Amino acid sequence: MSEIKVFDNLKVKEDNGQVMFDAETAAFGIGLTKKSKGSEYVRWERVNDYLGLSKSGQLIKRGDFITEPQLYKLAIKANSS
Asked: How many helices (H) and strands (E) in the chain?
């Protein structure tokens, strides 16, 4: 069973020896968000596009965890756009 830990407001868990990060928290931290009607939301379409999942049918959504390489990929793509 994997235990979720929080490091500086980022939920992290280990799954079969692989570090996994909470996708929603990571997206907020990287700035992949939009503001609407006074609230801030994750731009899930952008997250999935950056990860190359838009057409795969295996979309990342709230409550999902992403791998460390996926986290780096999001950060690099967000920084370059």
From this structure: 3, 6
For the segment 35-77, what is each residue's pLDDT rounded down to a tens digit? Answer: 999 999 999 999 999 999 988 789 999 999 999 999 999 999 9
Q: Is the pTM of this model over 0.90?
A: no
Burial class (CB in 10 A: 0-12, 13-18, 19+), 67: middle
Burial of 13 (0-12, 13-18, 19+ CB in 10 A): middle
Say whether 73 sits in a helix, a strand or coil: helix
Q: Taken in order 29, 48, 44, 57, is the CA torsion positive or negative?
A: negative
